[in-house]
């Protein structure tokens, strides 16, 4: 049984909901970024995925879950489609009324946060292992974001884990098959359900692109990237989810030449590469920046929430400096001219470069534990506008996730306003505030950066 191709509605008899006995696994405690395991764990352990999905759904009070909207998407890594099929069948069986899913099951983590907030969904299920390798021998991850669009808070994660430790059965609708390739609405009749279950396949980029249009001055950015005195940029999506966003927003809308964007086709193994925007791994970008033909470079991780910024000749901007420079130039971004700046924040391991800007501008500075949800708490309380962490995450209060493309557009807004090179902007910053040195132990640093 499936949806009628013409009307998108169910024909024939209602789909059956079944309850399947299962046994718990002891290792399903969600970490900072949800549950991450090797693909073979999800594939080889019976009902491993089903157990965790049921635990997520059961953590939502039945009254809240009934008829609710949930957003689903992932970074396109291996096992993404299989997992979505299971999530759709289980969400329907557990009383969810509507799923909003990215086209082909792909949606960046920042876009999922945006869509949750836009449609007032009860939450979202995000399928990513972030910058970890993909493919059949790589990693897979699943995390739950709540109604604010951000990662589940500690109490919710603990509840999910508690349920996973004692789970005895899960509900599923095995006959329900959804078409992820066709945009639009599909409805399904389920037995003992008064209202049909709805799946909406949406353009993965559009809602998020619209949000960015309301934050940045797209006319000024278009002039910078395609006007008479344009700069040359290089963007590396590392075969992750950011590719379609880069092409649609930077190339089609802001006028970057198509060949500015590399590795923009999402692949389930990220082309065999480690999808981590770090000098060690984003070698396609760092190599192409070295000869000085490009003024600005950026790379994104698998799910599009992390970023790396480079200047001409591969000048590397540390994540700690990046957030500090954005803070110092924050009114180059129209959004902050309208909202004002409520506060800055950084994670505890991140350098104190941001603190110096906060002190000079008399804006409150918050130091948080590692984990984006802690920034989200401050944003929800109206206390925070801009934040960042040393692990290549930067973001604002427009959503409740770190946001790689937002960070790139923030930097391009600064370049458009100041008309200086990345290196000059950073060196001016060091002259004004001093330079904070930062190192992360246990990581390989390319020899070219050891100076």
UniProtKB/TrEMBL annotation:
Residue intervals passing through the bilayer: none
Species of the source: Salarias fasciatus
PROSITE patterns: PGM_PMM (PS00710)
Keyword Membrane included in the entry's annotation: no
Annotated ranges, domain Alpha-D-phosphohexomutase alpha/beta/alpha: 28-167, 207-312, 332-433
Entry keyword annotation includes Heme: no
Protein name stated in the entry: Phosphoglucomutase-1-like
Gene3D superfamilies in the record: Alpha-D-Glucose-1,6-Bisphosphate, subunit A, domain 3 (3.40.120.10), Alpha-D-phosphohexomutase, C-terminal domain (3.30.310.50)
Assigned keywords, A-Z: Magnesium, Metal-binding, Phosphoprotein
Domain of life: Eukaryota
């Amino acid at each position: 049984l499936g949806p009628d191709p013409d009307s998108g509605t169910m024909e024939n008899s209602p789909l059956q909901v079944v309850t399947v006995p299962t046994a718990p696994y002891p290792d399903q405690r969600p970490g900072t970024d949800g549950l991450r395991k090797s693909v073979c764990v999800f594939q080889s352990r019976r009902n491993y995925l089903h157990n965790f999905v049921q635990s997520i759904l059961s953590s939502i009070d039945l009254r809240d879950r009934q008829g609710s909207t949930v957003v689903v998407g992932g970074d396109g890594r291996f096992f993404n489609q299989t997992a979505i099929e299971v999530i759709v069948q289980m969400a329907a069986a557990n009383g969810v009324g509507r799923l909003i899913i990215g086209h082909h099951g792909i949606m960046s983590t920042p876009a999922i946060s945006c869509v949750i907030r836009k449609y007032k969904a009860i939450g979202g299920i995000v399928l990513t292992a972030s910058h970890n390798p993909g493919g059949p021998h790589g990693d897979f991850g699943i995390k739950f974001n709540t109604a604010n669009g951000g990662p589940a808070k500690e109490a919710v994660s603990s509840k999910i884990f508690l349920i996973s430790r004692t789970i005895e059965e899960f509900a599923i609708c095995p006959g329900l098959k959804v078409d992820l390739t066709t945009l639009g609405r599909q409805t399904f009749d389920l037995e003992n359900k008064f209202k049909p279950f709805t799946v909406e396949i949406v353009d993965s980029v559009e809602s998020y692109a619209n949000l960015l249009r309301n934050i940045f001055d797209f006319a000024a950015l278009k002039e910078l990237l395609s006007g008479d005195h344009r700069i040359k940029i290089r963007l590396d999506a590392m075969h992750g989810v950011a590719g379609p966003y880069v092409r649609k927003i930077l190339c089609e809308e802001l006028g970057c030449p198509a060949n500015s964007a590399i590795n923009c086709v999402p692949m389930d193994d990220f082309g065999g590469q480690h999808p981590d925007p770090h000098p060690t791994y984003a070698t396609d970008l760092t190599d192409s920046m070295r000869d000085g033909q490009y003024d600005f470079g950026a790379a994104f991780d698998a799910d599009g929430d992390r970023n790396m910024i480079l200047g001409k000749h591969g000048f590397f901007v540390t994540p700690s400096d990046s957030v500090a420079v954005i803070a110092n130039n924050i009114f180059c971004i129209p959004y902050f001219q309208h909202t004002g700046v409520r506060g800055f924040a950084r994670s505890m391991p991140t350098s104190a470069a941001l603190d110096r800007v906060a002190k000079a501008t008399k804006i409150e500075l918050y130091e948080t534990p590692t984990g984006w949800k802690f920034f989200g708490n401050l944003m929800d309380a109206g206390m925070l506008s801009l934040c960042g962490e040393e692990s290549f995450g930067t973001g604002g209060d427009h959503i409740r996730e770190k946001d790689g493309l937002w960070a790139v557009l923030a930097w391009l807004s600064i370049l458009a306003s100041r008309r200086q090179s990345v290196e000059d902007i950073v060196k001016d910053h060091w002259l004004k505030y001093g330079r904070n040195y930062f190192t992360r132990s246990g990581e390989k640093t390319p020899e070219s950066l050891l100076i």
